[in-house]
Amino acid sequence: MKCYQRNINTLLSAALLCVSGINSARAEANETTINKTVASINSFNCSADSSWFTHPSLPTEVKQSNGPGDSSFCDFYQFSWQSFAYLMASSKTNPQVLNFQDSTQFNELEVNADGSPANSCDDKHDSHVLFIRTAKPQENGTTFTIPERIGQAGGGATIYDQNNNVVYYDVQFSKNMCDVKKIQQQQNFPGGTTELKTAWKVLGANDDPSQFITMDANITPDLKSTSTTKLGMIGFHLAVATPNHPEFIWATFEHKVNAPDCTSPETNTAWSFASKACTADLKDQNALGIVQCRFNNPAPSQSLTGSASEICREYAYGSAKGDLKYDENIQSIQTLNANVQPYLTDNFKVLSNYFNVGALWVSNTSKGSEISNQRGSLRLANTVAETEYQSVDLNADFVSNCFGCHNYTGTSNSGSNTTSNSLSHIFDDIAIGSNQCLDIQAANTINSQPQAETECPKTCTNSSSKLKWNGQWTNQSASTGEQLPQTVCGCCGA
């Protein structure tokens, strides 16, 4: 759930940096010692709790192990793993699905055939739910279109596994996000607000379904077909707001055979997104081979099958030596990933094939999401959801981690996270699809109707091409009547 923008120069730069980044000092974070030593020097050993698996439940807040208002890195990773365990547990209302697939708990973001937002709040799953068939149903040479904000970060990249099958994506969200008016009366999304994003690959003849969270889906060109294909989950984004952390806690999980590290890769693994030849080039630091493999440089495509993508992980656990609290971050992630293993039995056994890559949050929620206020895996990226955004440069004007695009406005700052459309990138789609209007912050304070007639149409369309100004604007809060720090314009589905 990263950057859906916006800046082609940034996109090109990220693609060009991938090769140089592989051989750069920043890639030192991927040293094999990180993976080979769950450390004899574990000063930050992060424990797991058996209750996460015997009695799965969603945590409502991050623990404060260091005292009131002071959570450790481990606290955030425990929050992430406990949430992941619950979401991957069987639903009590419908044991045939997992909790994250349970429509009584989470709605699925739906689109129409043209890629425009459909009504995701009516509980009628009558659209192209999995974003698999979103274009013309043709029998041969069929094309598909992954809508903006659904596929890879940046909206354009398409990746294929080593069987040449395209990767599919799915998005769920907590039901409270359907009450647009109520949410927008608050500065922040309420605690419990959740956004989920999953990535799926077609399971081929060489894939063992027991090693994956699976789903049967219709991926045929003919939407009326009843045939299904078994898909395996390869990536999972989790973003949850809590009362103490309205910026959302951004965590991501991956399947363990997705991709090798860019430096010192494991060559004996049958990677889903790296060939043996290209993995060997990484191992041998074959500069020509690495360039020819075009690692982490996927191109847009509209084909269900294509040339296999070559992907490697630039930063192990989203961290590089020298990052703030590097040791605490790395050790907390690694030890917790190891400490959950004894509890991964029975229905949870499949989770032994997944690991937490990292998480991201802010230290002081009264401030915004500037780099100095971020904590956790500062270079966080998912190899199958942010493939070309892995070269995270903390000193760049645009830092391509989660907060680079999901900008958070601190509680002491002007503006609102529910009207800026900067923190959540699906909130406007939910509103548009369910025929609800949004208040969206204008770039400038508006003091007259003529000014509004100039500024507000741009405010709406800049947020989404599907939004149109409804003629209303205000500088006052609808809930309190107090003066707003910024003007908001009323925007409705065009």
Keywords:
single chain, 494 residues, eight-stranded antiparallel sheet, 11 strands, 17% strand, 2 domains, 11 helices, alpha+beta, three-stranded antiparallel sheet, Dna Ligase, domain 1, disordered N terminus
SSE class: alpha+beta
The proportion of residues in beta strands is 15-25%
Mean pLDDT: 85
**Number of beta-strand segments:** 11
Radius of gyration: 22 Å
Number of domains: 2
The low-confidence runs, each spanning 5 or more residues with pLDDT under 50, are: 1-41, 131-150
**What percent of the residues sit in helical stretches (DSSP H or I)?**
10-25%
Broad shape: globular
Total DSSP helices: 11
Topology as a string of helices (H) and strands (E): HHHHEEHEEEEHHHEEHHEHEE
Distance between the termini: 25 Å
Written description of the protein model:
With 494 residues, the chain is an alpha+beta fold. The chain folds into 2 domains: 8-405, no CATH class; 427-493, Dna Ligase, domain 1 (2-Layer Sandwich), CATH 3.30.1490. Helices cover 20% and strands 17% of the residues. The chain has helices at residues 8-22, 32-36, 51-54, 73-87, 180-184, 276-284, 287-293, 326-339, 402-405, 427-433, 449-463; strands at residues 106-108, 168-174, 194-202, 214-217, 229-242, 245-255, 354-362, 374-376, 438-441, 467-476, 483-493. The strands form 2 sheets. Strands 1, 2, 3, 4, 5, 6, 7 and 8 form an 8-stranded antiparallel β-sheet that branches. It has a 3-stranded antiparallel β-sheet with strand order 9-11-10. A hairpin with a 2-residue loop joins strand 5 and strand 6 (245-255). Helix 4 runs parallel beside helix 8 (326-339). The longest helix is centred in the N-terminal third of the chain and has 15 residues, at 8-22. Mean pLDDT is 85; it is low at 1-41 and 131-150.
